[in-house]
Predict the structure.
Amino acid sequence: MKKYLYSLALLGAVIYSCSTQTKTSTSDAASTVATAAKAEHIRKGEEVFSQRCGRCHDLPSPSSFTSSEWKPIMERMAPKAKLTAEETNWVLAYVDANAKK
């Protein structure tokens, strides 16, 4: 009977340790993918900012304004630059990442 209980406890410990590692690995992978996606959005935002916003006027440095100051600027200027919603989000990600703190 003791062998049966020890075997059951050992099996439970092995199953628990395997499930814990899987959750951690999945979480790390999701975090890595999210970070890569954010970096890609920032890169695309920089391109759009330079190409589309710089057509009509000199570009301000993203660090010239805070994140909260950039939002109304983008709301006003995105339609003038004919930015799509996706492009606007990219530019917001770029200026937010480089905004004055």
